[in-house]
Amino acid sequence: KGLRVSDKGFLNTAVIQSQITYIDGDAGVLRYRGYPIEQLAQHSTHLETAYLLIYGTLPSEKQLRLFEGEVMSHSFVHADAEHFFRSFRYDAHPMAILTSAFAYLGSYYSEANPSLQGQKLFTARDKASLGNMDRQIFRIIGKATTLAAMAYRIRQGREFVTPPAGLSYTGQFLYQMDHLGQKDYKPSPVLEKALDVLFLLHADHELNASCTTVLQTGSSLVDPYSAIAAGCASLYGPLHGGANEAVIRMLISVGSPENVPAFLAAVKRREKVLSGFGHRVYKTSDPRSFIIRKTADEVFKVTGKDELLETAMALHDAAIKDEYFVKRRLAPNVDFWSGLIYRAMGFPLDFFPVLFAVPRVVGWLAHWRQMMLQEDGVKIWRPRQIYVGSSKRDYVPFDQRP
Ligand code: CMC
User: Fold this and answer.
1) How far apart are CA 361 and CA 367, in angstroms?
2) Active-site positions, per UniProt (predicted)?
3) Does the C-beta of 339 come closer than 6 Å to ligand 1?
4) Ligand 1 proximity of 335 Cβ (cutoff 6 Å)
5) Arithmetic mean of pLDDT over the chain
C-alpha cells in the first residue's frame, strides 16, 4: 500500500551516502576521494590508488610499502585450489571460473564471517575486528591476480606459475600468465605500466551494477568473498564488464572503415548496439576514455598497431558527429578503447571481463568496508515490489485443467 514503481533500473534512486568516488556525468568528471582521475593516472599506481579508495587518504611512503607487502604476501593460493581449477572444462569462460573461484576461496576463511561465528559484526570500534577486515581485503586483492592467471592458464593446458617475488602488482600478474619457463623472464615494463594505468582507471566507479550487487549481497552480512563473487557475476554481463569484449566482436563484424556507415544505419534501426558508447551517468565522453586512448598508443609502440584500430577510429569519429548519438548524448565510454589494448597485448577476447574484475575488486571492497563500518550499522537491502499477478485462486488437479 502506498508503494509506487517509479524508478525502473534505478535511474534516480540513491541508496547510500558515500565518500569514495565522485562523478559529474554532464561535465565528464571522475574523482577518487577528491583526486581527479587524470592526476592519479599520471602520478599514482594501482596499489597506491587502492589504498586511497579503501582508507580515504593517500598513504605515506611507509604505509604504502606495508600495504603493498601485505597484498603481495597474500598472492599465493592453497595448493588444493589447483584441483578446483582443473575441474572446469577446457573451454569454460574465464569469468565463470573467476566468479566461482572467489566463492570457493571464501570456504577457506571462516573468520571472514564473524556473525556466523557468533562474534560481533565487523566494527570500527574494535581494533581486532578492523585487523580481521583488513586481512580479508589484502587477501582478496592479493589473490585476485593469481586466480585470474590460473583461469587463464588452465584453459591453455599450461601448468600454474607460483606468484614471483619482487615484481609490481601488474608485473607479477603478467609473469604468472605469460611465463613459459624461460630463465630470467620479465614482462615488458611498458605493458606492465600500461596495465597498471588501466587497473587504476577501472578500480572504482561508484554504484554501478556490480558494486551495487556487492553491497546488496554484503548487506545480508555474508562474507566478503561471496559478495565479491556476486559482483563478478554482475560484471560478467555484456551491458557492464562484458562490453569491452562486445566492442571487439562488433569491430570484427564491421570489418573495415568503409562498412561503418552501414553499421551505424543498423544501430539507428535498432538492429545493432554500438558497444562502447553510452553510459548511465556520463552524458559526455567518459574521462577515462581519453587516458585509455593515449595508453593505447604507448602499447601499440611495443606490440604494433591492432588491425582493428582504423575501423575503431572511423566508427568513433562518425558516431561522435552523428545526430542520432549526439541527440541521445551517447559518447565513448571506458570500454571503447580498452579492448583494443588487451587484444594487442595478446589476451583472448573472453578474458577481457576478467581484466575488468581484477582491479574492480578494489572498489567493491572500498564500498563494502564503508558500508560495514557505518556508525548506525548495516541495514539489509530489501526493496519492495508492487504485486500485479493473479488474485487468490484454488489449486486444480491435472484432469480439470484446460
Ligand atoms: N547504441 C545504440 N543506442 C544506444 C546505446 C548504444 N550503445 N546506448 C543507449 N542507446 C540509446 C537507447 O536505445 C535509448 O534510445 P531511445 O531513447 O531512442 O529509446 C537512449 O540511447 C538512452 O539509452 P538507455 O538504454 O536508456 O541508457 P541506459 O542508461 O539505460 O543504458 C548503457 C546505459 C551503458 C547500458 C547503454 O548505453 C548501453 O547498452 N551501451 C552499450 C554497452 C556498453 O558499452 N556498456 C559499457 C558501459 S561503461 C562500463 C560499465 O559500466 O561496465
Assistant:
1) 10
2) 279, 335
3) no
4) yes
5) 92
